[in-house]
Design brief:
Length: about 200
């Protein structure tokens, strides 16, 4: 299964996926492409160092969401990509991309969904004073951060944890969970029924 990882920022999840791939932990998935909407995303360095093809697709002014989606689809089709893994991609994919890659797009979110959706999941859970938070890998549909949940890992907020400590714990959990979810997808072990994702045994 040829996957494209979409990034906008640091790329620590991309790095974890690359490492998992090297260690044979991504199952039948291979990272064929890294796509960034930011030319200077540090994530691109990780891809280049690993010898993975990169594409930068910045959304220029005047380009509509639909046109941008077409550009994305063009790249994905040209590279014969089977599945898309969002790893800190700061854009919302439009309905056309979601439809073309139905049940083939994953996202990772730094909270236990459906709590704390949106771009500030870690800060908002911390400010809210939750004692348990975590990470969620889910399928992407047209409902932002709302697609069927594949895997979650809980993270405790311990007495005295600063926001920085919590961020570190969350990222560590993400780096454990995301490769597992990608491997499950690639081995055809995820079956969606309504809102529920059943994980088939090997
Ligand atoms: C992660 O916290 C992920 O949950 C969120 O964006 C962040 C990306 O971090 N969607 P990185 O670029 O992988 O380091």
């Amino acid at each position: 299964m040829k996957i494209a990882v979409f990034v906008s920022g640091k790329g620590t999840n991309l790095r974890a996926l690359i490492k998992a791939g090297r260690e044979g932990k991504l199952g039948a998935a291979g990272i064929a492409l890294v796509l960034s909407d930011k030319q200077h995303a540090p994530a691109l360095k990780h891809a280049e160092e690993a010898g993975i093809r990169t594409v930068v697709l910045e959304k220029e002014k005047g380009v509509t969401r639909e046109q941008y989606d077409s550009l994305i689809l063009e790249v994905l089709k040209k590279e014969l990509i089977d599945a898309v893994v969002l790893a800190g991609f700061m854009r919302i994919l439009g309905p056309r991309v979601v439809k073309e890659y139905d049940q083939k797009i994953l996202n990772i979110h730094p909270s236990l969904l459906p709590s704390f959706k949106g771009g500030r999941g870690i800060e908002e859970s911390y400010e809210h004073g939750v004692k348990i938070t975590g990470v969620t890998v889910h399928f992407v549909d047209n409902d932002l951060d709302g697609g069927p949940i594949i895997l979650q890992e809980a993270v405790a907020v311990d007495e005295g944890d600063s926001l920085e400590v919590l961020e570190r714990k969350i990222h560590e959990a993400e780096h454990r969970v995301y490769p597992k979810a990608v491997a499950l997808l690639a081995s055809g072990r995820l079956k969606i029924k309504g809102r529920k994702v059943k994980i088939l045994s090997e």
